[in-house]
Amino acid sequence: MAATRCRVADVSARVLALPFVIAIALAPAPALPAPPLRDAPVIWHDDDRRDIPEPRERDPNLLWDSIDDTAVRPFGRLMHPGRIVRRVGGLFGGDHVPPAGNLNALDESPNSTWFTNRIGLFPMSPEEVARGPGPGAGPDRSGPWTIVRAKTEGVTPGFNIRDPKGAVHLIKFDPPGAPGMTTAAGVISNRILYAAGYDVPEDVAITFRREDLVLGENVKLTLPDGTKHAMTMGDIDSILAKVERSADGEWRALASRLLSGKPVGPFDYKGRRKDDPNDRVSHENRRELRGLRMFAAWINHFDTKQHNSLDMYVEDGGWRYVKHYLIDFASTLGTGAKGPTARYGWEYTVDAPAIVGRLLALGTHEDAWRRVRRPAGLDEVGYLESALFDPLEFKPLQPNTAFANLTDRDGYWAAKIISAFTDEHLEAIAAVAGYENPEAAKHVARVLGERRDKIARLWFDRVPPLDFFTYSDGIQRFHDLGVERGLCPGETSRYRFRSVFVTADRERLGFTSTSWTVTSETATAPTVERRTAYSQSNKEYTFQAFEWQVDRGEGWSRSVTVYVAPGSGRVVAVER
Amino acid sequence: MNARRLLVGFLAAAWCDVSAAETPAPASRWGLLPPPADSVTATFRDAPTPLWEKTLLVPYRIVALPFRGVSYGIGASLVYFDDHHVIYRVSQLLGPRKGPFGVLVNFTAGGLPGFGGGLTIVHDAFLAPQNRFKFRFQSTVKGSHKITLGMRFGDGRDGRLEVGAGYRLRPNARHFGIGPASDETRESFYKQELTWVGTTVRGQLAGDLAVEAGALFSTIGARGSDEDDSPSVSAEFAGEAPPGYRERSDGVGVSLGLRHDTASEEGRPTRGGLRRVNATYFESVDGSDVSFWTYRGEIEEFFPLWFSYRALAVRGFLSWIEPAGDSSIPFQRMMTNDDPDLLRGYQDFRWRDRGMTALSLEYRWPLWANREADGFGLDAYLLADYGQVFGELHEIGFRTLTDSYGGGIRIASFGGFLGRAEIARSDEETVFRLRADQIFQFARGGLYHGRDPVPSR
After folding, report:
1. A12 contact B CB<8A
2. How far apart (Å, rounded) are the C-alpha atoms in residues B134 and B449?
């Protein structure tokens, strides 16, 4: 809540001698000054669609990327002096990293080439959520599909097909022994992330027969050792022979429509793309990438390496820029490319702290993932459960720099969006996943709902879920998302506020009311309303700050401060 | 930005503003959300780094420079090798075999042999699906060499025949004297050469009970040591050199035994065990008129503990050589703490006598799993070894019993045990070992795996 304090003077170059360094290290980390308040429309769009030259294609090495993410970067974060100071300062309040760099005054992430506000801010019907980014129909079926490329690297084979309308789709299969599992997981996670606001390809669960496929001309097959040869029909049959078929002789697969534009490689979760002038915020400081950690935890998306992202150089109305996508969601919901794996999502591939912990514990502690079981009788569902799930304990296969920068505000933002998915939304998504057993769809929807609630409770306990403030005619209205989403009892929730005049730089003129005013309203209605008095006593102090807290019966929460320009009735800023 | 783009930008902005005026803003939880327009669009940038942090980053970056350089070098090398498919080809060589034939690299480190390695060639369907072939070569920097050839016919359920041969040179074998009270200060060295060829037959009697019979020809010589390994036995034990020193003992042994093996796996056994009794009669063929009986009883048990894959492994054995007649047993054929009868806080050959008994305990727990709990992974273990050699049974006692304590890490997979790295300490020394074998379940080895058959165990 740094901005509610008086502004802290910069600790400047006078700090060179060791005693001063120690003193500062032990003091609360000085906060970055908040931007000045202004009585103007809130920024909802990032200006990152300016025309740029085509960037160079990135091709990071998979092996080095995993080593870098697993060992080099975490060590760098551990030793980074800025983080050390902030962590010490965190003991006195504050975050271990600066706030995200792409936030508007309402602590929301504006629409950008990275993220578009959808279910978090706008109502979406279950049908809309289930449809996803495209019409949801998959490859056109008016004629055969022409194979234009094939892959044999990786555990699961696949190939690219061009449908009769010219659209190219990547066809991916389930691993042996797990029919339908990764296909369904890919569809469900795709829909969830799209509705949340991320840009994703159009993934659809499909079935097809051998006669639906024809081989294109001059198709080369690349083998794992790098050699290539002209693909033959026999190669197609060899690929399909490794894939299980359903009882009616059809193959089940995931069809992922190739994105429009020119691929320029994945985006790194750290740093910026140097040859993209629109990329001005370091990726580890982007709200949507930090918050992705909670979405990943929700759907157990353990394979969040940069290679499962894709930047596309697109053209839109004469402007050419880079758009950023998340791709490949087969490794979610407790399954992966090699089939269901209990451990994934609980530990990094090589998790040094966990290993050392187990060594020192001498085997007296049982890891949670060893107790996870697959649901009996549901062969299409992987290791997805909710009883042992702990959102903060989620770990992808390799550490993620942006995830490591998650702050309470970022976590709350993600939880706000996650909790916007109702049970109906989740059931609608599971229904289009292609499960043969309807009980599998019900089970997955139920478990996702339970995991959703855990995430929401975690962050709504840390950050008061008082949101979507409006102010008009002297009445403040806000939503208590904890009550609205059925997580907290409305009848026993109490609210209190106090207000103060502030300048544009948030300097205070004492308190107009120094004591808290406890409202008599409870949150039985969708919104809480409170008439708040305003009077301008000093021309400099043109804004009024209202500090709100909520009590669920366990004491008053941290504050949420709302800044209002009473003259225009505009909520100009929110601080958490 | 050129004029054309400026004009396009202006027109686009104007269009957006016009559009904003014409198109109603969608209703969001915050109220009406305006479409893109200059008034609601901004450029976001990273927040500036505070001066205090910039100050701290100066020495940090200086100190980090060499680490960044090393990291960059390693990364560039890995990328180069990966792009040229070198890593892929090495992984095919070292990784799980896709077919019955394979060439594997083996390593050893620690102990008397020192650091070394070699190749192992295996075929898991040699002449027939249930037959196996293994050729192994290993050499160390201290001049220890070993070559073994083993073949197994049959899978053991209905019977199994093993044939094996091998040669092992140990240039720095040690001798401290014979008996449980041998003096640690009287370390001396000799060169031991062992050659063998033999066969064993195993037949299932009932359930997990099997009978084993074998015949082995072996020749084991104890020569003077090299100059680097001094003092030699003849120097340290002048006038009282042990029988068999500077001689070669050739002979044939025939054995008969029973084994009851209920341990279901080798990688991470948590239940069952191995019980063995064995008797071997040896007679020399070199004219030295040496003959003796070797008796051995052994038991291994694995007990599951409180959580999954926690196990207590217990192994106890007693081996005893009974001379037939008045013959002196060559010292190189006596019982000693050598693979697999290790007292792990001591280097090989510390103790030697006609008999040996030991109790080994290992508490094991999982440390890391690659994917599945019972798949490839690392387990940690704590160990305790208690044991001694003896010339007569009444010499077994607490005063002469040695103890070793330590721990290590095992590498295991679905296919079984792969290797171990351990460190153990006794009152005399601390020993580190890096091995591809284990003292538990060693009896699964035998001639096929090329385990030293002398002394008879």
Report:
1. yes
2. 7
